[in-house]
Automatic annotation (TrEMBL):
EC number: 2.7.1.-
A UniProt-annotated Pfam family: PTS_2-RNA
Species per Swiss-Prot/TrEMBL record: Actinomycetospora aurantiaca
Highest taxon listed in the record's lineage: Bacteria
Keyword vocabulary terms for this entry: NAD, Transferase
Protein's name in the database: Probable RNA 2'-phosphotransferase
Its biological purpose: Removes the 2'-phosphate from RNA via an intermediate in which the phosphate is ADP-ribosylated by NAD followed by a presumed transesterification to release the RNA and generate ADP-ribose 1''-2''-cyclic phosphate (APPR>P). May function as an ADP-ribosylase.
This protein's record includes keyword Transferase: yes
Similarity comment: family membership: Belongs to the KptA/TPT1 family.
Enzyme kind, highest EC tier: transferase
Length: 175
């Protein structure tokens, strides 16, 4: 594992899930001081800027002397990203234990701020594999969802976000 990946994982935990663990606080939209973060992590600003610029998931956002994770939070508060028009079809990967609930109830954010959707089936399958067992992929009628009032946000090049997606707009993909 590279140093960049290792630092990105540490930043993810601090900025998305458990800031108190390293003694930092996030404001209501997930921002904290870059100086506070680098001191808490024992790294340099250049290290953090490298992760922001070159990290594979484009997960972080710098604004002057502030930094935040753009999406994936399980902490209180809400990162507000502008609404965006999604592609006609998106995908969601999950594990086999939750697939039937997704089919029946739709996609809900659960412990996160948003439902995470992928622009391609391969990425969704990879995400679903993290949940154990053979991944299950759902095709999302994003155009239909948007037409029915679901608001989409662009998390990064590979990730789209929504508050929820009703079950009638999901199709379980066959392996």
């Amino acid at each position: 594992m590279t140093d960049r990946v290792r630092l990105s994982k540490r930043m993810s935990r601090a900025l998305r899930h458990d800031p108190a663990r390293i003694g930092i606080e996030l404001d209501g939209e997930g921002w904290t001081s870059v100086d506070v973060l680098i001191t808490a992590l024992g790294v340099t600003r250049a290290d953090v800027e490298d992760v922001v610029r070159n990290g594979s998931k484009q997960r972080y956002e710098l604004d002057g002397d502030r930094i935040r994770a753009r999406y994936g939070h399980s902490v209180a508060g809400r990162v507000e990203l502008p609404a965006a028009v999604p592609p006609a079809v998106l995908f969601h990967g999950t594990g086999p234990r939750t697939a039937d609930a997704v089919a029946a109830e739709g996609l809900r954010a659960m412990g996160r701020q948003f439902v995470h959707l992928s622009g391609d089936e391969e990425t969704a399958r990879s995400v679903g594999a993290r949940h154990g067992g053979r991944p299950v992929v759902f095709e999302v009628d994003a155009a239909g969802a948007a037409a029915s009032g679901v608001v989409f946000r662009h998390g990064n090049d590979d990730t789209w976000l929504a508050d929820e997606v009703p079950p009638g707009l999901l199709t379980r993909r066959q392996d």
